[in-house]
Amino acid sequence: MKTIRFGIIGAGLMAREFASAAARWCHLSDAQARPELVGVCDQNPSSHEWFRTHFPSVSQYTSDYRELLANKQVDAVYAAVPHNLHEEIYGATIRAGKHLMGEKPFGIDLPANTAILKAIAEMPASFVRCSSQFPFFPAMQRMGEMVERRAFGRILEANTGFLHSSDLDPTKPINWKRMIEFNGEYGVMGDLGMHACHIPFRAGWQALNVRAILSDIITERPDGKGGMAPCKTWDNATLLCETRDPVDGVQFPWVLKTQRIAPGQRDTWYAEILGTKACARWSSANPNVLQLLEYTGSEQSYRSVETGYNPAYKTITGANFEFGFTDAILQMWAAFVNELVTKKTPSQFAGCATPAEANLSHRLFTAALESAASGETRPVAHS
Questions:
Q1: Rounded to 5°, angle at Cα 332 from 186 and 293
Q2: 17, 120, 121, 368: which has the highest count of C-beta atoms within 10 A?
Q3: What is the pTM assigned to this prediction?
Q4: CA distance 324 to 37
Q5: Are 135 and 141 in contact (CB under 8 A)?
Q6: How far apart are CA 372 and CA 375, in angstroms?
Q7: pLDDT at residue 146 above 90?
Q8: Domains of the chain
Q9: Is the pLDDT of residue 299 over 90?
Q10: What pLDDT does 298 receive?
Q11: How many CB atoms lie within 10 A of CB 207?
């Protein structure tokens, strides 16, 4: 089996999730290749210790990402760094001839994202994707399959979102995601938005316009030093968009929500598609249940379908078991490695978010900022 040697830039939580997924690669039953962790880069040396303890395959530890990119043993890079570093580090990774999985939003703003896309165009041999686990839950794979076979009929409305309550506590100390210089003006949209956009964009539903309501709810937080620091990033965002079905050309509303202050929501992805022939809705709060309404002209009622363990990339787990977040992480990385090696995905919705889809999110969020500032609906620019 082919081995893809990985380096990590940014050894935080999601880097550890990737490393853990790589360690359980044997869980996949028909993998075309496997990842091997060989390098770790983080400016905080203490973050190296977890990797030293668990991954003897790592032969390089460094605080300078340039040293990792110069390592000829590294084939691909997972970069999980603050948004203000995306343009520099993603661009350098691509130009070094490495394959890249980058965290969303793929640049702190639209100009930064455009610069990253320029680097990709200059280095077409580099395989580049954006992290987003949402579509890899079996229920979302089934909803995607319904989109592919036109099971919904005419689309009437779509609703997607990512809600959590991590910032509900006003005494929680500030961190980089709450600082505009690191997280960017998008605020919560940049942090969570790609997850809510992935399925619609993969379906070809590009926002034509947007009316955005953005909320800065907690305006200052403890600075961790006994004082208070201004918190200028948007906490919650509600975007009402008009989009178009690329198959029949019919326009319909798409409501997208991203919230860091959502009482009652610990960490919830959701999606709902309403059509003239069928409707489907799902929430990660109840991840193994997909609700379906198939309209045949008689009484309408939703039925609950237990999706079980039926992911896009086969594993040793039986279909009667339940699927969770770490399974979605493994599936996302299986999708990255599989497409890197085979140049294809098993289905339309079984691939990682593309740079082009990340660019669509930037165009939407840029228009959303303009809409919130003006109080008006704004068109979403397309390249």
A1: 85
A2: 368
A3: 0.96
A4: 24
A5: yes
A6: 5
A7: yes
A8: 2-130 (3.40.50.720), 134-378 (3.30.360.10)
A9: no
A10: 82
A11: 26
